[in-house]
Design brief:
By secondary structure, this protein is an all-alpha fold. About 60% of the residues lie in helices and about 0% in strands.
């Protein structure tokens, strides 16, 4: 599995400076979520937490142009420990 840091690095390779800055902001917010013990890396949550830090609104992240942002959020979600389902 590729770590979120590796995904961030890869996504930034050919991105504009504005996109790189946004990716960095999303990454920082996701790290803060992890540090709080939260595993909510949903588009809505990250957009809400990052609205004052240059993160686009949720709808912009969902649009085609937000593909790299969604990939970074997916990397965090995939890296989060999976909770066991109770039967």
């Amino acid at each position: 599995m590729i770590s979120p840091a590796e995904v961030l690095s890869k996504l930034k390779e050919n991105a504009s400076q504005k996109t790189q800055d946004t990716l960095n902001s999303i990454y920082e917010i996701c790290i803060e979520q992890k540090e709080r013990g939260l595993e909510d890396f949903s588009i809505a949550t990250i957009a809400k937490l990052g609205h004052k830090r240059g993160v686009p609104q949720a709808q912009s992240i969902r649009n085609k142009s937000g593909e790299s942002y969604r990939a970074l959020l997916k990397a965090f979600s995939d890296a989060a420990p999976k909770k066991e389902k109770l039967e």
